[in-house]
Amino acid sequence: MPRASSDARETARDAAPRGRDRNKPLYMISVAAELTGMHPQTLRVYEQKGLVTPGRSRGNTRLYSQADIERLNLISKLTDEGINLAGVVRILDMRERMLEREAELDDLRARIRQLEDEVHEYKMREKITALARYDAQASPEQVMRRLLLGGGDAEKTED
Description:
It contains seven helices and three strands. The chain has a three-stranded antiparallel beta sheet with strand order 1-3-2. The radius of gyration is 30 Å and the shape is rod-shaped.
């Protein structure tokens, strides 16, 4: 591989957009070809076969995002390992479904944490309400002391 291609790939990786910017169409086909070490015609074939879908400028020029470049590099790696394009399509499809499931799991885990926090808060309120309800004579400090110590023994020892 020529040194210029390696340098271009390293520069693209270092300047790689983060988050949603990864999908912003930035690179013309010649730059994408340089970054991936592929011939522009190969990129056109991959687009035709649905392996990559670059954006288009107003003048209908193909514009590849950082996500497209990463996908093309993965395609290159898979084909270098002897996997044909039909296999690459299946692998990419399974990978996309896996990433979607991981995102769903992350959302569900966050929701579970939120619900656990809400349940904990509800239980604490319930305990405080129960303590205050059963001993209207106790001061707020005594109620809190009983709550923190887990029972009514703390008040009995102080009296």
